[in-house]
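Work package 3, deliverable 3.1, input record:
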Amino acid sequence: MPTHGTHPDHGFDVHPWELRWRGFDIDTIGRTEALFATSNGHIGLRGTFEEGEPVEVPGTYLNGFYELRDLPYAESGYGFPESSQTVVNVTDGKVIRLLVEDEPMDLRYGSTVEHERVLDFRSGTLRRETMWTSPTGRTVRIRSERLVSFTKRTVAAIRYEVEPIGEDMSLVAQSDLLANEPIGGPGGKSASDDPRLAAALDAPLVADLADCEDYSAVLVHHTRRSALTAAAAMDHEIEVSGNADTSIRAEGDLARLTVATTVEQGSKLVITKYLGYGWSARRSVPALRAQVDAAIAMAKETGWDALKAEQAEYLDAFWRDADIEIEGDSELQQAVRFSLFHILQAGARGQSRAIPAKGLTGPGYDGHTFWDTETFVMPMLTYTAPAAAGEELRWRHSTMDKAKARATELGESGAMFPWRSINGEECSGYWPAGTAGVHVSADIANATARYIRATGDEAFEIECGVELLVEIARFFSGLGHHDMNGDFRIDGITGPDEYTAVANNNLFTNLAAQQALREAVTSVSRHPAVARELGVTGAETARWSSCADDMTIPYDDALGVHQQCEAFTLLAPWDFEASTGRYPLLLNYPYYDLYRKQVVKQADLVFAMYLFGDRFTPEQKLANFDYYYPITVRDSSLSACCEAVAAAEVGYLDLAFDLMSESVFTDLHDLHNNVSSGLHIAALAGAWTDCVAGFGGMRDFGGAITFAPRLPRQLSYLSFRMTVRESRILVAVTADSATYRLVSGPTLELAHHGERFVLGDHPVIRPIEAPPSRQAPIAPPGCEPYRRAL
Amino acid sequence: MPTHGTHPDHGFDVHPWELRWRGFDIDTIGRTEALFATSNGHIGLRGTFEEGEPVEVPGTYLNGFYELRDLPYAESGYGFPESSQTVVNVTDGKVIRLLVEDEPMDLRYGSTVEHERVLDFRSGTLRRETMWTSPTGRTVRIRSERLVSFTKRTVAAIRYEVEPIGEDMSLVAQSDLLANEPIGGPGGKSASDDPRLAAALDAPLVADLADCEDYSAVLVHHTRRSALTAAAAMDHEIEVSGNADTSIRAEGDLARLTVATTVEQGSKLVITKYLGYGWSARRSVPALRAQVDAAIAMAKETGWDALKAEQAEYLDAFWRDADIEIEGDSELQQAVRFSLFHILQAGARGQSRAIPAKGLTGPGYDGHTFWDTETFVMPMLTYTAPAAAGEELRWRHSTMDKAKARATELGESGAMFPWRSINGEECSGYWPAGTAGVHVSADIANATARYIRATGDEAFEIECGVELLVEIARFFSGLGHHDMNGDFRIDGITGPDEYTAVANNNLFTNLAAQQALREAVTSVSRHPAVARELGVTGAETARWSSCADDMTIPYDDALGVHQQCEAFTLLAPWDFEASTGRYPLLLNYPYYDLYRKQVVKQADLVFAMYLFGDRFTPEQKLANFDYYYPITVRDSSLSACCEAVAAAEVGYLDLAFDLMSESVFTDLHDLHNNVSSGLHIAALAGAWTDCVAGFGGMRDFGGAITFAPRLPRQLSYLSFRMTVRESRILVAVTADSATYRLVSGPTLELAHHGERFVLGDHPVIRPIEAPPSRQAPIAPPGCEPYRRAL
């Protein structure tokens, strides 16, 4: 998003491997809840304080666990979804309330002497240290550390220490499992301005079971309408020098272990809290209870130290395969690792669940998954954490029945995947920017093909890949048609740019569908037996090929540029002067006006030039970029990273650097002023995209991995790592050369700026020429890329 | 609407000047409530029984009186209307309940010996005669007659007679004013399936005043949200041979006069009930009460007989100017007069209020007015009841502030009129088929220009006409733009065909806008002083002319047909075989599928060929009709009459006759199975359109009235009347000749099949040649035009 004027200090200490914040401004607490969220892709815990308050959005999420709510329409229509899934804040196990001599520890009262929070990208933990003096003058030091385990996906754990300073102190700790938390924060605001959403989420959980024993307790609840059941369990280890009175209770929405003790000066109360979570649409309450009991037993048996050790080991392996090193901009280095870390958290252990647009960091977008995942997040996972990528695609495949049913409902062939969903059913309540965004299905197909090419995962291809590709090819070959001129057209749909909707022959969609059709033909030829089971005939694949070959590619001969959709370049110009200060435009202009003018919300054709770059000449790319960049307003966080790649390719390196910064700092600098509701996972993935595909120039057209690296003057060094089938490579770029190393695995054929080479045991070093110096086009007024105060 | 299979007897006696029905099938009672509705355009009474029940929708309406309700959105957007107006059933004064020896008279019980209802097009009354035997064997004859006065617009009256048969009988009559009637009928169904609508309309009226004295009573209520106040008053004359005990009371939602008497055999109880209605957004309760008291005083002073005489006199004058005579099809004759009568009822005395799509005959479409009024209803009123036409346009002009505010809200210039409304504010909850239907503004401009040309009403033009034309020209000149080729384009809007929406350069809209722009230039040149007050400059009118001159007219050179919108002929064909039996398509197919294929809901380009026929050659008209008729499914009642005109012009007279029948019998034969919620006023106006513009071939391009009459073989004679400025003419058509007569007024230049002549004192007789014999195109399967069992 374009931003305006100067930017304040965002309060983070620059550190290559940590996000560290010393602030405790209550007004910005919602941001830190998202930025400091910990997750393994299955369980997500927002970065709230253990003491429960102050809090903006408490947030404990289980991937795939949702409630239903009605979608109302002023005028309904056939095929409009009647209900939407929405992510539910499940039983909160993060809470450990503390009373210091009868006073509740709360940062809003007393005085905070020291306060620091650290999200550590290598340990995979959130640490915190607070020195606080109560209103009556007692001072305590609190240290906590929490993790959501990457190695044990149903487990989270918290280490909580309290140390009295200067005197002996009476302390009471209350460790909770708390269901149906009030969603409102300190201001008492409700779950949503939308009364329907608030109604669905106001106490969404119905208690099924509450039990406790010793230091452990369990709560099981189900949702009213979606009838999903979730179980949460906790157990504790307590270390204290003196005596401690403990009691436990569990009833309805609350389980609580109370520890009352007097801690001597110089001594500590240490509580280790183990949490186990599970949910199911089918399993019984006793079965789920058993599952979380087992998780807790496993966690305790492992113990805190070993859980931490496993976590660090898991992350060591991740960074070995995924790290990006940057020199010349240490804040960017930190931000890039922050991004990679959060994408790992979003996708690591989803295990056949979606990767939501906000990960598990907040309730934004109702917890839905969009095309973002396959198009922005999956490339990084495919080349750095392929197991996670495969799991995501297995989730898509698991929703095949729903996608086929949706296609049938709408009169289409094959499988039509939802624009937004948690469980695979369409949740879009405005079809021109939802159902009409059919490219999501092509995006899934192309992510599938990319994953298969990059990993050689034949089991996946046989079990899921062929079917995904076949049913999506069926969808597109039925969706479009050959006109009387023999051109294959896809009419009346919406591409990535949501300011141009229900258009004919959106170039992005046509190219994405073209590739999806060709990938299906290829996959069928690799696995004829699987294809036969799916009823694929030679005539059918021949038709897919002809649809792909005859695909309409709208081009304006007079202007010498491609058209984002047919007739796009004939539409009225947008009055950018008049719209200055009225961004995002969708809040200030009607769709009907946006749709019929040349104003682009987010990279669309320019994005296609990256994803389907072999379909454009270099001259076309330059002309297209120069035409579309000045009419693109980046009202979507998905735009800057794509434009950065294209800018880098055509040689506008300064501009590419600024655009990359805008993407990477979307959340750390809260450029959209909505981080509180969750991180923008796809924009974070832009950090990877811009390093690897932007300044690294990596492309993967049909399996041939090629590079065309070029650094912006702001950076002196960039290296990144990729895994391609069995080969791990490292690419290191400086201003005038690139070094390619094979870290492990078999030799690999690559290319550097168009020159092919085989990478074996010896590093390959190649020179980099400076790009021709060109004046970059100018953004619309007020839409200049974000530039940090450096 | 296309219909399927054979049709039952609809139960109406064929009569040239009456609609007479002897049936009393309770299941079809809702139909008769609409068909037998009486109205003067200000007050509307559905044709319910005086006894109150059985009833499907009780229905008493005051034009312009509405309640507000929220419009909800699953995903909202800028400029989406937040609330809608919806017509309210006001205080019901039709009710006169009858007890026959303690048994309530109710057609559902006992036995009905005779039953007949007559809507008389010349007396302007609804008569009824029922001979009914109670469950205990008492027989009474009931005669009633009611009218809503054309001459006294705030007055309605009912004459109600009860005659005991065969014995003296104790009778009690209860004459009510009843507010907040349950909307549900015998089955207890609610006001609407839509809970929001039901909530708004469940007891919408709040009591302000109830008073009574002698035989008279008054109730005043207001609506909760819209804060409109309505008053209803009644007074009575009672004629009975013996003594009658009477009592009156008024409280809250009910005022009741009770008359208890014993009537001797051979004698009658006769009650004459006078009703007065009024409403206001501004006037106080006492003021409104005074207004309806005055209405009642006037009505009583006039008396029943004189009210009837005035009514008949009013209608004599109407028929003198508007009657259409048909020979060869007596059912069609009846249906055409039924149509003209109801259009008069809808528009006669609206007096600066809208003419709703359902008139005042039912709650359908929430009581809203659409483009139907200016485009379908206004031509008939303009040439037959010009005063009513002028009033309608004055209503549009009175909403100018709202139309300008809406334009400003949506970033447009000038005035943007609502797609659907009661008070002038947009009520459309689905913008692609609402706000995007910008042609409504051009339709208003063109109706304005037509009215000015046909009447020479200079006072109207100065007070309203110039401003309407100027502000609408400003809207269209701002809405479209000149592209780099110098063509003026109007992109991203929706034409009449709602199965193709958010399209570029819809031909209908472009031609309508072109004409509206030119009419504005002409009007400005006639009234330069008015234009100066509106700030019109020479540069502005020059721009309007250039927009009109450069208007894009999409045409497919390869096929030799116009395109309904740009690229329309390149869209995928619709699979009509597969959709057989799945009409209306919008209930069975998603918009996204309908929009991107060649399937037409209702005449669009074909309609443009009638309204803007001077922009097409005869060859183009034929080619276009042959192309578009086979892909038009007539899922709208607005389609058949337009297609009939075009079919008649290109020489498909049999087809034109069938299409005309479909339009004319839309309501009498309940072809859409929804007459209960109100008549289709625009489809009824199609009766006039098809006689005058279809078989009469009347056109009015730029003020030159021309004819090209040709009868279908089913008719032996057709005559119609028109008023053009001061001249009244009669056109009589037989198979081989047409006779033009000047009934009164100055001579008039006309044309007959292209040959100009001046019509003076002597009739002009001209021969008619048979059209070339051509095979008409075939409708989509299952969409064949309605054909009566003759």
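Confidence is low (pLDDT under 50) at residues 1-8, 185-191 of chain B.
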